[in-house]
Design goal:
Elements lengths: L2 E5 L2 E3 L5 E8 L6 E8 L6 E6 L5 E3 L7 E6 L4 E6 L8 E9 L5 E3 L3 E5 L2
Length: about 120
């Protein structure tokens, strides 16, 4: 059974930084593309960043140059370093695991990120 547990959200001022973590269990980590999505009130969930087992990365245009996704295979953990945060980054951030070659997706419970002065 796949389990994804996020941590690291919170309240931060504009221009500040946060690091999100997502610890995975119940999966063979190297067989999954890991990603971070977010959903703001009244908006659809959107991809923020993803990373393959070969550490190829993909970013939404809105976060390029500010966010960095990484993964630690030994710890089965994926991270999202968020810098230069803006109020429009405010959302619930969800960890996602997608098994390579399939449409099998698993989701974490979400962690709130609020950027406000």
């Amino acid at each position: 059974q796949v389990q994804l547990v996020e941590s690291g959200g919170g309240l931060v001022q504009p221009g500040g930084s946060l690091r999100l973590s997502c610890a995975a269990s119940g999966i063979r980590f190297d067989m999954y593309v890991m990603g971070w999505y977010r959903q703001a009130p009244g908006k659809q969930r959107e991809l923020v960043a993803s990373i393959t087992s070969g550490v190829s990365t993909n970013y939404a245009d809105s976060v390029k140059g500010r966010f960095i996704i990484s993964r630690d295979t030994a710890k089965k953990t994926v991270y999202l370093q968020m810098n230069s945060l803006k109020p429009e980054d405010t959302a619930v951030y969800y960890c996602n695991a997608r098994k390579i070659g399939t449409n099998l997706n698993s989701w974490g419970q979400g962690t709130q990120v609020t950027v406000s002065s």
